Amino acid sequence: MKYSWWIFQILMLGLSVFFMIFGFDLLRASYTFKDPFSFIMTFFAASFILLISATLGISFVIKMVRVYKRSKQEPTP
Fold first, then answer.
1. Which long-range contacts (CB under 8 A, 24 or more apart) does 8-13 make?
2. At a CB cut-off of 8 Å and minimum separation 6, what does 19 contact?
């Protein structure tokens, strides 16, 4: 039970990093469009993907740090 929480958090952090990389790649690709409408739509979509994935990644890291600090403070029986 204890290790499954850590595995889940690490998998979610990895998924968040994957979407962050995907967002950067999409952002870079948006600059290759000649059509202004396609550029704007792709640029904002990539920015939205980056915003959500960065927020989720930060929240997973904060949760893991809190649980790690709490586990170090509690005495083990």
1. 9/60, 9/63, 9/64, 12/56, 12/60, 13/57, 13/60, 13/61, 13/64
2. 49, 52, 53
**pTM score above 0.85:** no
Secondary structure of residue 73 in the 3-state scheme:
helix
The string of pLDDT tens digits covering residues 54-73 is: 999 999 999 999 999 988 88
Long-range own/partner contacts, residues 28-36 (CB < 8 A, 24 or more apart): none
Report which DSSP code applies to 77: -
44 is written with which tokens? 């904002």
